[in-house]
# Entry
Amino acid sequence: MNSINLLQGVAGYRAAPGGCFHRRLVASQTARWVKTIAVCWIALGSATDAWAQLPGAVQGGLDAVQVSGTLQAISGNQVKIEDEQSHQSFGVLGNETQVTYLGEADKSVLQPGVFVRFTAPFDAAGKPQAELQEIEIFQATQRRRMSRQERQDQMPGIYPVEEPEANQSRQPAKKAPDPASERSPAIKTVRVVGQLKFAKQGKLQVMVGARSIVVTLAEDGIVKVASSDLSLAVQGDAVEISGLRNAAQPDWIQVQKMTVTGVQPLGATPNAKQDLEATKEEQPKKRVRRSRSRLAEPAQSPTSKPQ
# Structure
């Protein structure tokens, strides 16, 4: 999202270098994610430095605060939020700020290269036993402290899903049937994390390392998005931030955690079909595929000039 420079003229506004938030959820190696995220946060500057430059800022006397509302503007490492009472708050992001974007996307966003994860039942031969009702596009993140589940949820692999048995506490434990026996259907529910290689008419080919898995997304299936890329946010999205506030500047918040929930699906337009057909006639096929969604666009290098 292009910066909505509505902060100009507001007391305490400080323009920060923009254009460093990359527009992609694709990376060939985990190291590239780490480098890209590190460059972005370095360009934004630390929250401590930004906080010290706010007008009237004093050390100490910080109170924990939580604010929710709608996103009004983003400029550099600062965001503007308006609550239901039309009160405006300004947040300062730093290198320790945890940013999360959650939303849904049009199926056209499912393009080769994006990382996806889903849960589905498979038989012993690795054949899916049902259409997917939901699939999530995600962007790998690297934080200092991550739980085992958080690391597993973004590391390519096939993971078993434990399903609690009904009345387990009242009944004695029973030995699970042999998957190879005739009485057992050998159907297991697993969590798949991998990279999308092919997508056409609901058929999806996902690569998990060297293994290829083919699944079908239901016609009414939902495509979700989980990312730390703030450039996916647009004006009007729901925002919730938590952090520290100085009593001398109650409208300014040093943001520790920020969650943005998209109000509209990414990649969806009122006349998406007509727009797509018009684009196909005017542009080469390769450019059409890249222009349909910015989720699969290659990241700009830190030294490249914004378009």
